[in-house]
Amino acid sequence: MDIIRQLDKFKSLPASVLTIGSYDGIHRGHHGILTSVVNHAHARNLPSVLVTFDPHPRHILDSSSDKMSLIMGIEQKLEIIDTLGVDIVHVINFTNTFAETTAVDFLNHTVIPNFNPEYIIIGYDHHFGYKREGSPEFLKHYCAEKKIGLDIIQPVSDEGHVISSTRIRQLIQEGFVRRANFELGSIYGFLAKVVYGAGRGKGLNFPTANVIPVEKNQLMPKPGVYFTRGRINGLRLYGMCNFGTRPTFNEEDLVMEIHFFHDRVVDLYGKEIRIEFLERIRDEKKFPTIKDLKSQLINDKQKCLELQGKYE
């Protein structure tokens, strides 16, 4: 897959099959759009193209300090897009200036001259351009005038609910990560940096890696205990994660700490690891004694080890 961030040296395509979208967390609905683009492109013997944006437009258009949290960063999105077989991804640097580009100008000056789409495929609710004027209805008229094929993909549902980034974000924040993972079509997780912690896990015989997300606007799960999987130095390791305030120790700051079920994990401080949330085990709770906490940790680990077979 070719990733194009600047078009000044890009050789225009004679034709393509193309889609446009921000894709805040690539889910099963997005999979359907991208798979359709790839299939149509193969049928026509043309390259498949995705035009997307980074940072997410809402992070630029929203001037408040409380930015929308992201399900996944651009690098993770590109990894998933690559697995779906897309040939070319054009990542546009979304700025306040670019935000003022009308839908017509965007198509006439960026999309058409560089990618010459023979066919455009978009989702039923996708909008682009200044004031979101580039609606599916707008594209119907534009494509008819330019003699470009157009396919509008209808929503994908799960148990009567339309799969969307908004719904998946809500599921993650409410602790339903297994359902969120199903609707994503991949495992929710993120790249994190290992930082120094209080070292209490070692004293409990459950040494942990304390982590903070690399993406500053990363969507975090509901506090609690999770069965997790990590990727570290090429190793794929299972473990359990506590995300919370550690009430047994009367602390207040939210901390994420992970205990890996592997003897070969040594000093990880300063390293970046990818952490994936497979299932939520329980709520965080305050224990009357350290002994009670340790007993619960043993039970948590046993439950996670029993679940591990589902994911191997």
What is the compact description of this entry?
With 312 residues, the protein is of the alpha/beta class.
- Given the C-alpha coordinates, what overall shape results? elongated
Kindly report the CATH topology of the largest domain. Answer: Rossmann fold
Describe the sheet with the most strands: 6 strands, parallel
Distance between the termini: 28 Å
**H/E series:** EEHEHHEHHEHEEEHHEHEEEEEH
Name of the level-1 CATH class of the largest domain: Alpha Beta
Strand order of the largest sheet: 1-4-3-2-5-6
**What's the total count of β strands?**
14
Q: What is the count of distinct domains?
A: 2
Helix share bin: 25-40%
Low-confidence runs: none
Report Rg: 22 Å
Mean pLDDT: 91
Percent range for β-strand residues: 25-35%
**Architecture per CATH nomenclature, i.e. the level-2 architecture of the largest domain:** 3-Layer(aba) Sandwich
The number of distinct helices, counting runs of at least 4 residues, comes to 10
Could you say which structural class the secondary elements and strand pairing correspond to? alpha/beta
Write the CATH homologous superfamily of the largest domain: HUPs
